[in-house]
Design goal:
Strand order of the largest sheet: 6-11-10-9-8-7
Structural class: alpha/beta
CATH architecture of the largest domain: Alpha-Beta Complex
CATH superfamily of the largest domain: Quinolinate phosphoribosyl transferase, N-terminal domain
Strand content: 15-25%
Distance between the termini: 47 Å
Number of helices: 10
Radius of gyration: 23 Å
Largest sheet: 6 strands, parallel
Number of strands: 12
Helix content: 40-55%
Length: 288
């Protein structure tokens, strides 16, 4: 599954971002210093290697500030760009370009950072059939955009939210009084009865829980904080019956060995929750 940009949501985020930057007074510096009729052209340029993601969002920021701004993309979404490569060119009223600059770059830098990190994780598993998944550990309100950037970078998307897949964890079983013998079986049965159209995933902390989840015919089993040895045994036990997802304690360095275990997926919160924004600048000059 790959998520597309939800521009209705993006417009809300852009409006919020511009409002917090401009409040009621607007860009006071540009208004005070730059003549109103000054025109300029600018280039958005990456200052480090990156995978490009978020250009349509940055374009939307500029056009929100002024419909007179002209935008030309110089790179494509998902393209690997070397340091100093131009990503886009914008031209129009100089005041408007400067007003939009920081908000546009904030969106673009974060999304490129997520795509670039996702690409590194996907690359680490290139010699296996295991796929990298994102998680729900996203910036509040940004989930659509951040999961979009993950997919652009070459990784894959997990469930979008709490609504589109059942995921039964130990907390759910404990609060429902479904711990102990056959607790997973009964949890899965309840979930399928209430939401027959949804896939069901079960978190397993032990191989005994893996065995019960297999017996319950879960669609997915999350192998929580398991060692590579435990993962290999889970794959052997499962024999292809359920999809297996490794999670917890996943690092970039571990991925090649995890890929050798035969699990179907590895979910990584670090794709979104602690990623470094890419370094991108805007070089601007007046029309000659």
């Amino acid at each position: 599954m790959r998520i597309d940009i939800d521009f209705d949501r993006v417009d809300v985020l852009i409006d919020l971002a511009l409002t917090e930057d401009l409040c009621k007074s607007g860009d006071t510096t540009s208004q005070a210093v730059i003549p109103e009729d000054t025109k300029a052209t600018a280039v958005l340029r990456c200052k480090e290697d990156l995978i490009c993601a978020g250009l349509p969002v940055a374009e939307r920021v500029f056009r929100k500030v002024s419909p007179e701004i002209k935008w030309t993309a110089l790179a494509e979404e998902g393209q690997f760009c070397k340091a100093s490569a131009p990503l886009a060119e914008v031209s129009g009223p100089a005041r408007s370009l400067l007003t939009a600059e920081r908000t546009a770059l904030n969106f673009l830098q974060r999304l490129c950072g997520i795509a670039t990190t996702s690409g590194k994780y996907a690359e680490a598993l290139k010699d296996s059939t295991t796929q990298v998944l994102d998680t729900r550990k996203t910036t509040p309100g940004w989930r659509n955009l951040e999961k979009y950037a993950v997919a652009v970078g070459g990784a894959a998307n997990h469930r979008i939210g709490l609504y589109d897949r059942i995921m039964i964890k130990d907390n759910h079983r404990e609060l429902a009084g479904l711990e102990g013998a056959k607790g997973i079986m009964r949890s899965v049965a309840r979930a399928r009865k209430m939401y027959p159209a949804l896939e069901v995933e079960v978190e397993a902390d032990t191989l005994a829980e893996v065995a019960e989840a297999i017996e319950a015919k879960a669609d997915y089993i999350l192998l929580d904080n398991m060692t590579d040895v435990q993962m290999r045994e889970a794959v052997r036990m499962n024999a292809g019956q359920c999809k297996l997802e490794a999670s917890g304690g996943i690092t970039l360095e571990r991925l090649p060995e995890i890929g050798k275990t035969g699990v179907d997926f590895v979910s990584v919160g670090a794709l979104t929750h602690s990623v470094k924004a890419s370094d991108i600048s805007m070089e601007i000059k007046p029309f000659e």
